[in-house]
Design a protein that fits this description.
Length: 206
């Protein structure tokens, strides 16, 4: 089993913890990771964009001028795409961009990115991420001591003091154990995780 240091809120090492190999020491599957990112981004799309085709634009029922003899190019409708106010040639229509991915594949992708962060030594376990009051400086000091600025902070509980303390820091995001995903883990350089949150993840994904 891989062993990582446990830090306190002052950034000092206070112990060690063994990580579950079934989650943090798996074979990294880059194809599944890529698929998970594509799936997540596609499923975020609203798919509500819409524009009118020439058949949906009002007016234009009458031919603007006769076919021949005017010196103009022939025209059938003032609502044709080449006219101002005309319809769109290949108009976007509401559609569902959802991509489905198997639960086992999602878990394998998540384990792959968690493993990569451990192997890169960008996985920091804190004995208890706590803030007595909402204070950005508390979290900034912790991240400085850990040597990271772009971090995903994973919490076990919805601690508003910690969330508010992290909210104004650029490139820092807080997440609960049930909301972590492949895209966020890849987006942020490192993971800062509460020890209780680590135990929850090992219970759920082992």
């Amino acid at each position: 089993m891989a062993t990582v240091s446990v830090y306190n809120m002052e950034g000092a090492v206070v112990g060690n913890v063994e990580l579950n190999d079934a989650i943090f020491n798996v074979e990294i599957n880059e194809n599944l990771v890529h698929q998970a990112v594509i799936t997540q981004l596609a499923n975020k799309r609203q798919g509500t964009q819409s524009a009118k085709t020439r058949s949906e634009v009002s007016g234009g029922g009458k031919k603007p001028w006769r076919q021949k003899g005017t010196g103009h190019a022939r025209q059938g409708s003032i609502r044709a795409p080449q006219w101002t106010g005309g319809g769109v040639v290949f108009a976007p229509k509401p559609r569902d961009y959802e991509i489905k991915m198997n639960k086992k594949e999602k878990r394998a992708a998540l384990k792959s990115v968690l493993t990569s962060r451990v192997q890169e030594e960008k996985f920091f376990v804190i004995d208890a991420i706590k803030c007595e009051e909402p204070k950005t400086k508390t979290m900034v000091n912790l991240l400085d001591k850990l040597g990271t600025t772009k971090a995903l902070v994973i919490l076990n509980d919805n601690d508003q003091n910690v969330i508010l303390s992290s909210r104004n820091i650029p490139d820092v995001k807080t997440a609960l154990t049930n909301t972590i995903n492949v895209f966020d883990i890849l987006k942020y350089d490192s993971i800062v995780i509460d020890k209780a949150a680590l135990e929850t993840i090992e219970e759920v994904y082992a």
